[in-house]
TrEMBL record:
<dbReference type="InterPro" id="IPR000801">
    <property type="entry name" value="Esterase-like"/>
</dbReference>
<feature type="region of interest" description="Disordered">
    <location>
        <begin position="20"/>
        <end position="48"/>
    </location>
</feature>
<protein>
    <recommendedName>
        <fullName>Poly(3-hydroxybutyrate) depolymerase</fullName>
    </recommendedName>
</protein>
<keyword id="KW-0732">Signal</keyword>
<feature type="signal peptide">
    <location>
        <begin position="1"/>
        <end position="21"/>
    </location>
</feature>
<dbReference type="Pfam" id="PF00756">
    <property type="entry name" value="Esterase"/>
</dbReference>
<keyword id="KW-0858">Xylan degradation</keyword>
<dbReference type="InterPro" id="IPR043595">
    <property type="entry name" value="FaeB/C/D"/>
</dbReference>
<keyword id="KW-0964">Secreted</keyword>
<keyword id="KW-0624">Polysaccharide degradation</keyword>
<keyword id="KW-0119">Carbohydrate metabolism</keyword>
<dbReference type="InterPro" id="IPR029058">
    <property type="entry name" value="AB_hydrolase_fold"/>
</dbReference>
<keyword id="KW-0378">Hydrolase</keyword>
Amino acid sequence: MRLRLLALVASSLLMTTAACDSTSDEGPAPSPDAGTQGPGPTEGDVAPADRTACAGLTVAAGTYDWTVEHDGRTRAYRVHVPTGYDATRPTPVVFSFHGFGSNEVEQEALSAFSTLGDTEGFISVYPRGLNFPEIFGQGEPDSRGWNGVACCGPAQVANVDDVGFVDALLADLDTRVCTDPRRVFASGFSNGGFFSYRLACERAQRFAAIAPVAGMQGLADCAPSRPVPVLHFHGSDDPTILYGGGNNIPAGRPYPSAAESVRRFAERNGCTGPDQQTYQQGNATCVAATGCTPESASAVLCTVLGGKHSWPGQTAYNEDTADVNATQEMWRFFQARPRP
């Protein structure tokens, strides 16, 4: 798992800037596609029709690597269909977005959603972000990421329409497996966490709840079409995406603290009650806003005291805590929060 976020972004941006400023016999380096922002941030925020059954689908349990066309590019995503999957029965779906410099295979290993999905009966989806060569024609290949507005890398710099890619992915997924439109959820690590927040802001009708890890709300103009429950995990000593917020992402934008990211959603969700501790073990503590409208639209911050840039429960990655398993807690949170 790569953890070179700041150094990799900086070096790749310098490389790309220098190349784009130079000329050669082959002409200038390619520039980002025009019009990648898409038609509008909330134009695709439409609730899909309910589904009670599916017919004509043939995909069985297993792991698949699929592609979909979007914005003139072939975009990739990995799907794990759980053991015991019934192609006629609407099934919950959990999206897990990788961090900057990572990919869908690494995110599957980091999050372990596929393993849990086999036990709990949900479909796991791991989309793949674009990198510098795919966007600019040159630069560091290990630079895949998402346009999380404040973060990170080439997708953010080029203003890639990753939200539109997710729309296309959802449409393609529905032709392959039997999804439950009311039980589609988003999680993500680091840059993927930023992007899951963006989906809550702009696709509240498509995603029932989100669970970012080590990523903040990077979209200042966030106006979800309905209350979206949030479960946010963050290490207090994260040196990459600072727990207290900051402006340390090369070519990125300032981002709020973990507490402020969650507070903003608590406010949007009409949470007027007192904060309530919902989990405490060792160095892991979760605190939820209460009195929300509806009550299930809670906004929860789980802090790992002394935690680094990591996925709680994955102790082999950045020496993280064993005191809370983020993947298991996410699924418990999601299970109780289908889209109304």
